[in-house]
Automatic annotation (TrEMBL):
Residues 7-167, 263-444 form the Glycosyltransferase 2-like domain. PANTHER family: RHAMNOSYLTRANSFERASE WBBL. It comes from Nocardioides panzhihuensis. It holds the Pfam family Glycos_transf_2. Signal peptide: none annotated. It comes from the Bacteria. This is GT2 family glycosyltransferase.
């Protein structure tokens, strides 16, 4: 079967002349030759633009020009190009940006590999006026939750043209965020979405562009809010979109889930320790803080306690006002995994929250906000932002790949934004820490629960990978659900080589397995 033709579509309006020449050179220099380039001039007032376009079309038969009769903006001009496209694939290229010579070749190779591929995106970097490259953005695999908070796909985007036409192309009223809106709508129809690694697209920083100044197009931010809200409404996600912490970032506030029966499972041995200068019975204060933070109407706390747990701690748990406490004695040798599994067996909730005993709720509505995304059937687990006692980041998602298991942004300061605002947006992640994780009961048991072959460490990573890779469900980290985690107060946190070997032997080197392509969130 022959490889597909690519239709590059570009809206043109007064591009910087030198930058436009670089754009032209990057298209003409593509190693993949079966392409057409459709440029729609949106009544550019600069006198050189239209003659240059005509000259280009006269010398290169694969170039076609649309001369618009009136200025209509980027949506109208992009649709003019789209209407003339004949290729099976459509690629988006701005009039001042630059493609790597193998950009089309690599994207087409992905389409050749996957017959059901409908949307592919690559990594990108920034290009200065002088042509210098910097700030490469190596993107995650397909991450729909992240996309609702940030148009991380951006450049280079290549679509199956039939799907773009099915969803109606670019929509009026979304100027500045028209590509974000398009990707959101295409993603709802796409059979397969693939991240093609490599910075194939150089986003030019010219005065007045969003690449140079994210404040340059405030109207685009509001258009992005409407695009995200539109998807939430189409998918039936009960949530409200609004502006995020900076232009180009968004906030999605889900309607809290106050009624789904929840069991909070807490393994403990009743340790007491000093936190912020005061001695506390850790598990007692953990439960008290969660009770104080929630308005959920159906919560039980399943406390799985080791036999040596002090009787006064158990008495204090029973006495917590407003808490439905179920005490389950654990008489075997310590195993975090076994204790969690025992707790799940005694739990009655439709949703299970596994929680360490050395925690304190910081944000309001921890339970109802943590479980809200679990209404969506493709979400398998959720986890919160966890802070150390000094407010530095303890958990912002776990990274698994190439034989490494690490905490993202470990010990980052609370004011840090993270790469492209990652610490202030919800997003899919490789794995979630078992210190606080929520999942539907059936997902937990379908995944086989916590592996008791990993009694201390990495049982959470193993469970996450079973949910994500075996069950095909998403793991979502929630930036605005926040708890303190006084880590290592209650036990030794040392990791052993055999535990690392167990995980790597079971799950392998993910990046090598996928051979450079990715179709899920890792």
């Amino acid at each position: 079967m022959p490889s597909p033709r690519v239709s590059l579509i570009t809206a043109v309006y007064n591009p910087p002349a030198d930058a436009f020449e670089d754009t032209i050179a990057s298209v003409l220099g593509q190693t993949y030759e079966d392409w057409e380039w459709i440029l729609s001039d949106d009544r550019s007032p600069d006198s050189w633009v239209l003659p240059r376009l005509r000259q280009l079309a006269a010398t290169e038969p694969r170039v076609r020009i649309v001369e618009r009769a009136e200025n209509g903006g980027i949506v109208a001009a992009s649709n003019s190009s789209l209407a003339e496209a004949t290729g099976e694939l459509v690629a988006l290229l701005d009039h001042d940006d630059v493609l790597e010579p193998n950009a089309l070749e690599k994207m087409v190779r992905a389409y050749d590999r996957f017959e059901d591929l409908d949307y592919a995106y690559s990594d990108q970097d920034l290009m200065s006026d002088a042509g210098e490259l910097r700030d490469a953005y190596y993107k995650p695999d397909w991450s729909p939750e992240r996309l609702r908070h940030h148009n991380y796909c951006t450049h280079f985007s290549v679509f199956r043209r039939s799907v773009v036409e099915e969803v109606g192309g670019f929509r009026e009223g979304f100027d500045g965020s028209q590509d974000h809106d398009l990707v959101l709508r295409v993603s709802e129809r796409a059979r397969r979405i693939v991240h093609v690694p490599g910075a194939l697209y150089h986003w030019r920083q010219v005065p007045g562009s969003a690449a140079a100044d994210n404040q340059a197009k405030p109207y685009a931010w509001d258009a992005g809010v409407r695009a995200v809200q539109g998807q939430l409404d189409r998918l039936g996600i009960r949530a409200t979109a609004s502006r995020g912490v900076s232009p180009g970032l968004y906030r999605v506030e889900r309607e809290p889930d106050l009624d789904t029966p929840v069991s909070v499972i807490i393994p403990t041995i009743g340790t007491s320790a000093i936190v912020w200068g005061s001695m506390r019975a850790m598990v007692v204060e953990t439960v008290r803080s969660v009770v104080a933070s929630t308005k959920h109407r159906d919560v039980e706390f399943v406390i799985v306690y080791d036999t040596p747990t002090p009787a006064p701690v158990l008495d204090a748990l029973r006495a917590i006002e407003g808490a439905d406490i179920k005490l389950v004695e654990f008489t075997e040798k310590f195993s975090f995994s076994a204790k969690c599994n025992v707790g799940a067996a005694h739990a009655r909730g439709d949703v299970l929250i596994f929680l360490n005993d050395d925690m304190e709720a910081y944000s309001d509505g921890v339970i109802e906000q943590l479980i809200a995304p679990l209404r969506e059937p493709d979400v398998g687990m959720t986890g919160p932002k966890l802070l150390f006692e000094d407010y530095r980041i303890q958990h912002a998602g776990l990274v698994y790949g190439s034989g490494t298991i690490t905490h993202a942004y470990y010990r980052a300061r609370p004011e840090e934004r993270g790469n492209h605002g990652e610490l202030h947006i919800n997003r899919e992640t490789s794995a979630l820490t078992g210190a606080c994780v929520a999942m539907r009961r059936e997902v937990f048991f379908d995944a086989g629960g916590f592996s008791e072959r990993l009694p201390i460490n990495y049982n959470d990573v193993d469970l996450s990978l079973k949910v994500r890779r075996s069950l095909g469900l998403r793991l979502v980290w929630l930036h605005d659900v926040v708890l303190f985690h006084f880590e290592s107060v209650s036990r030794d946190n040392a990791v052993h080589d055999w535990e690392k070997d167990f995980i790597n032997n079971r799950w392998g080197n993910y990046l090598q397995v996928r051979e450079g392509y990715s179709n899920g969130v890792r």
